[in-house]
Amino acid sequence: MSSPYNVRWGIMEFVKDLILDPSTRDVSDVKHEVKAVASSSSADRAKKFLEECKVPEGAAAYGSYEELVKDKNVDIVYVATPHSHHYQNTMLCLEAGKHVLCEKAFTTNAAQTKRLIETAKAKNLFLMEAVWTRFFPLSIQVRKFIEDGNLGAVHRVIADNSFGDNVEKKYGTTHRMINMDLAGGCLLDLGIYSLTWLFQTLYHTLPPPARKPPTVVSAVTPYHATGADEMTSMILTFPSAPGPAPAGTPDGSSHPAHGIALTNLRVASDPDGFNTCRPAIRIQGTLGEIQVDGPAFRPTTWRFIKAKGQGMKGTGEPEVEEHKCEIPGQGMFWEADECGRCLRDGRLESEGMGWGESVVIMEVMDEVRRQGGVSYPERIESLEYPLAL
């Protein structure tokens, strides 16, 4: 058996999952090394992280991102800074010749995402938006279930990722969640997960030539203290969706579907914290419904409820298939494994989270902000690089 491909990471801000033994998740073809960590505030903070996480000796601790990207022992950089800084930080890495895994939301707008992709392509570098949820075994199972036709024609998906907090007390006016200088608000921070479920079930399950951008109608409520969105509801109409078109459809080959994405800072998807409300995601097709219990960003349980007439137990009770997918750790390592395989195979983008799909999702969020009158400071939406923030 060949040796696992070794991925040498540099980290902007901190994550612990990379140093977990891959065998705990039955992975043997790739492994990960943290070679360097950087904090924008001080090298001491980076050193403290290395000590707390018991990172093997030899990893460097830097007090600036500029130092990190010069480290010759680093192959790929994980960018986990605020949304407002993703464009500048990722461009710094690409210009230094480093591959990049950048946290979602990828950037503050689609134009920035497109520029990063152009740069990565020109420099022959790997680049991926870090949508960790998409690489969970649970997500892969759900997508395959849809692709195999088990749900029939999918007509509607409802996804909610909301936190119920006293916004004034918890976030005030400077916290990153509601700070416009950091691209705060529930859309980019929480709503991206609701959109992730819409896109991975209604868009990504189609063959690439059949994927078409959705149209968007949205409603946004701003936080009175800063103007960041505190409540955002989106209805997306996908012109083509998985499964056979209804009889009599004009072209006979496709049908539309609605995706409803919800996010809120004041009311929660899981109000009591015990999952009493059950599904945060409902995927509805002609043969039944898939329900995914929350939280939307880190689910571990899904079920399939057959439509009436499709399957009943001998007792006349409804037939429900339950599926449990445990996560041995936080779960961010699966997207890191994907990065490693792409680097090993010489691929610049991931099939699981491709550049084109990241652009379409950013364009949806741009349109939601346009309709809701939400705009960030010009300097964090700028394409200029380098630009001090």
What tags apply to this protein structure?
8-stranded mixed beta sheet, 389 residues, 14 strands, 23% strand, alpha/beta, single chain, 28% helix, 6-stranded parallel beta sheet, 10 helices
Which stretches of 5+ consecutive residues score pLDDT under 50? Answer: none
Fraction in beta strands: 15-25%
Percent in helix: 25-40%
Our measurement of the CA-to-CA distance between the termini, rounded to an integer number of angstroms, reads 48 Å
Strand order of the largest sheet: 8-9-10-7-11-12-13-14
The helix count comes to 10
Shape: globular
Order of helices and strands: EEHEHEHEHEHEHHEEEEEEEHHH
Rg from C-alpha positions? 21 Å
Structure characterization notes:
There is one protein chain. The model has no long low-confidence stretch (mean pLDDT 95). The chain is of the alpha/beta class and 389 residues long. The strands form 2 sheets. An 8-stranded mixed sheet has the order 8-9-10-7-11-12-13-14, with helices on one face. The protein has helices spanning 43-52, 65-69, 83-95, 110-122, 137-147, 167-171, 186-202, 333-345, 355-372, 378-381, and strands spanning 5-12, 30-38, 60-62, 76-79, 99-103, 127-130, 154-160, 215-222, 229-238, 257-264, 279-285, 288-293, 301-306, 320-324. A hairpin with a 7-residue loop joins strand 12 and strand 13.
